[in-house]
Specification:
It is built from five helices and seven strands; from the N terminus they run E-H-E-H-E-H-E-E-E-E-H-H. It has helices spanning 12-23, 47-62, 96-106, 175-181, 183-198; strands spanning 3-7, 27-31, 66-75, 116-126, 135-145, 161-163, 168-169. Strand 1 (3-7), helix 1 and strand 2 (27-31) form a beta-alpha-beta unit. Helix 4 (175-181) packs across helix 5 (183-198). The longest helix is centred in the first third of the chain and has 16 residues, at 47-62.
Length: 199
């Protein structure tokens, strides 16, 4: 029987991206939403703190091992914003479109040469809620903020995140292409490598 693990996110895009990789390790992946678990309060000061808070909450509520991701977009010209507040940049219940619209507005006067940005992802794995030695994996992907949204794939800020080596935004890449280069793809690969050595 497969070991169950709860994915501490309500974001359907993240569930899609993460479940396939974690499933390869023999886990049965359940989302916290499917288990009726409310989201944790994200009041940490770093991506690592927030990921740990989310994983501990999901593990405590479910009694299962938990995996949580905290990620965000860090824009140099905006002093690191939206950063930890990427999901709620335009307000507490903001949609992806709302957040992208706010970012475009904030970046309106920023010249092309100063539009550098990076996506950051931290993923943690806890064996149980009080696990004293969580597995922590991190990834980063550097790009720039496009002048307008392009592409239909992905979620979040993907239509605005232009990746120069591919000459396209993340939303113009297939899921497979994005997985190979993205911040979350890198963090998942690191998590998978670490789990293969500890399971």
């Amino acid at each position: 029987m497969k070991q169950k693990v709860v994915l501490a996110t309500g974001n359907a895009g993240k569930v899609r991206e993460m479940a396939s990789v974690i499933g390869e390790l023999g886990f049965e992946v359940l989302s916290q939403r499917a288990l009726g678990i409310e989201s944790a309060v994200e009041d940490g000061l770093t991506f690592v703190e927030n990921a740990l808070k989310k994983a501990r909450h999901a593990a405590a509520q479910s009694g299962l091992p938990a995996i949580a991701d905290d990620s965000g977009l860090v824009v140099r010209a905006l002093n690191g914003a939206p950063g930890l507040y990427s999901a709620r940049y335009a307000g507490e219940n903001a949609s992806d479109a709302d957040n992208c619209a706010k970012l475009l507005l904030e970046m309106n006067a920023i010249p092309h040469a100063e539009r550098q940005a990076k996506f950051v992802s931290v993923i943690v794995f806890l064996r149980h809620a009080n696990d004293p030695s969580p597995i922590i994996a991190q990834g980063e992907c550097v790009g720039e903020i496009a002048q307008l949204a392009q592409g239909e794939n992905g979620f979040g800020y993907d239509p605005l995140f232009f990746y120069p080596p591919k000459n396209r935004t993340f939303a113009q890449l297939s899921l497979d292409e994005k997985q190979r280069i993205s911040h979350r793809g890198q963090a998942l690969a690191s998590l998978k490598a670490q789990l293969e050595h500890t399971l």
